[in-house]
Write a structure and sequence with these properties.
Strand order of the largest sheet: 11-12-15-10-16
Shape: elongated
Number of helices: 18
Largest sheet: 5 strands, parallel
CATH topology of the largest domain: Rossmann fold
Radius of gyration: 27 Å
Low-confidence stretches: none
Bound molecules: zinc ion
Mean pLDDT: 88
CATH superfamily of the largest domain: P-loop containing nucleotide triphosphate hydrolases
Structural class: alpha/beta
CATH architecture of the largest domain: 3-Layer(aba) Sandwich
């Protein structure tokens, strides 16, 4: 009897679970027997592995090969186990020594000719391996940089199965850790200096950046809604190292990382089209659920252009993600969770005819209301800042008053954010948008003369209770930007006007 074992990792969402792979070779009818597993789940992998082994010039054992994966309840779909399976079988057959396999995680799909193909989720897989105490990993060469993001794990890259087998035999070395990835801020090519006019919308963008508030831009085509939205991430601070790994893990599982600079250090900007599927928007799909746009926008900005065109089903799915800060998908193998804490920016035309100038609109009043009504009340209620874009006038095109650059605005945003962090740090909140309503109404309650205007709005029903809380959060951000210790009447009134401004 000849037995060997090694490790790979299964992924449930962004959570990795180390999987021990064992192979046993015994007399009996030649073939591959998968213990405790439905044959179908690994059949493709089995065939690929056998072909890759043969095409790498290695004999496949002409006896019965039994393979077991544990824990058995984990998802066995996917191709990430290929390399581990191949090495394990060859070690059981005594073609390679088993020594190095013991504490090593092997990740990668095998092409039929023996090349290692990259798999999704290398970063979260290795984070899980590290938790298990496994301190060495062999990954496809193309995933080496991503793998190297995980400290305290020795990562080695291989291009082919032959290289891995040579390494197990002590004949060849594998590529070791690549040089550390630079996390220095790369200047975004999108600068606010390129956006002409729109003082209200620029101000709203700055407030949104400073407090982490959601934003709605309403205006005719060509007024620069998209240009502004694209520049929001450039006003936000770079991601903390913890957030950076978290965001990178989501993008890794989504298969959206580049191999040369895998670490995502800046807040992502994600802009799904209004025809995108619900699955692409919030995640899901067949088999193992993949992260959707809301999760790729985690710790960054989700921009919905032509928001009214998204339809109730997508907007409702979006609202759920917004409320819960994560998306859950029920799967046969368990619940798959993806984080989804993003800043929402909506842009919409004021009406179905989308006129270049407001006076050219040919829509009836009910048609305008109905169009705007497509943004559901509960979703809209969560949008703190609503601005109407102005028509671009020739006077704005004067080259001499060049608009403020992103760097100038970012400096103010950074100052304001520091004030907020300082105030809330004992509670663990980063931005004013994070602060729960009760805290604003009790410990940080504002004097009644300051909130009078808000109480009036509540009484008349022009703002909901939740809307009033959101107003207070914006007022705190306005105070932070004005370098005040707390909001006054002006800040509360301005916050309310941002909310009240009926966009349609
Ligand atoms: Zn119209």
């Amino acid at each position: 009897m000849a037995l060997a074992s090694t490790w790979s990792v299964a992924l449930l969402g962004v959570d990795g679970v180390p999987v021990e792979i064992e192979a046993d070779i015994s007399g009996g009818v030649p073939g591959v027997h998968l213990i405790g597993l439905p044959d179908a789940s690994l059949r493709e992998s089995k065939d690929r592995v056998r072909a890759a082994v043969r095409n790498s010039g290695e004999p496949w054992p002409q006896r019965q090969v039994s393979i077991a994966l544990s824990p058995a309840a984990l998802p066995k779909t996917g191709s990430g186990y290929d390399v581990a399976l191949a090495c394990c079988v060859l070690a059981a057959a005594r073609s390679v020594p088993p020594t190095l396999l013991a504490g090593t995680v092997l990740l990668g799909e095998l092409a039929l000719d023996g090349r290692l193909r990259s798999v999704r989720g290398v970063l979260p897989a290795l984070l899980a391996a590290r938790r298990k105490g496994l301190c060495r990993a062999v990954v496809p060469l193309t995933a080496l940089r991503e793998a190297a993001l995980v400290d305290d794990v020795e990562v080695l890259g291989a291009a082919t199965l032959s290289e891995v087998l040579g390494w197990l035999r002590g004949e060849t070395e594998l590529a070791a850790e690549p040089p550390p990835v630079s996390t220095s801020r790369t200047a975004s090519p999108l600068d606010l200096a390129d956006v002409l006019g729109q003082p209200d919308a620029r101000w709203a963008l700055e407030v949104a950046a400073a407090g982490g508030h959601h934003l709605l831009l309403t205006g005719s085509p060509g007024t620069g809604k998209t240009m502004l939205a694209q520049r929001l991430t450039g006003l936000l601070p770079p991601l903390s190292s913890v957030d950076s790994v978290e965001v990178t893990a989501v993008h890794s599982v989504a298969g959206a990382l580049t191999s040369d600079e895998p670490l995502i250090a800046e807040p992502p900007f994600v802009a799904p089209h209004h025809t995108t599927s619900v699955a692409a928007l919030v995640g899901g799909g067949t088999g193992l659920a993949r992260p959707g746009a809301v999760s790729k926008a985690h710790r960054g900005v989700l921009f919905l252009d032509e928001a009214c065109e998204f339809g109730p089903q997508r907007l409702d799915a979006l609202r759920t993600a917004l409320e819960e800060g994560e998306v859950r998908h029920a799967r046969r193998d368990g619940i798959v969770r993806y984080p989804a804490r993003f800043q929402l920016v909506l842009a919409t035309n004021p009406c179905p005819c989308a006129p270049a100038k407001d006076i050219d609109c040919i829509c009836s009043a009910p048609a305008r209301r109905q169009y705007f009504g497509r943004l559901s009340g509960p979703l809209l209620d969560r949008v703190d800042l609503r601005v109407r874009m102005r028509p671009i006038l020739a006077m704005h095109l004067n080259a001499e008053d060049r608009p403020e650059s992103s760097a100038v605005v970012r400096a103010r945003v950074s100052q304001a954010r520091q004030r907020a962090v300082h105030r809330w740090s004992a509670h663990g909140w980063q931005t004013n948008a994070d602060v729960p309503g009760p805290m604003l109404r009790r410990e940080y309650r504002l004097p009644s003369q300051v909130t009078d205007v808000l109480n009036c709005a509540l009484t008349t029903g022009s703002v909901t209770a939740r809307g009033a809380d959101r107003c207070i959060r914006v007022a705190w951000t306005l105070a932070d930007l004005a370098e005040l210790d707390r909001p006054g009447v002006d800040q509360v009134a301005t916050a309310l006007s941002f909310r009240d401004r009926r966009a349609a």
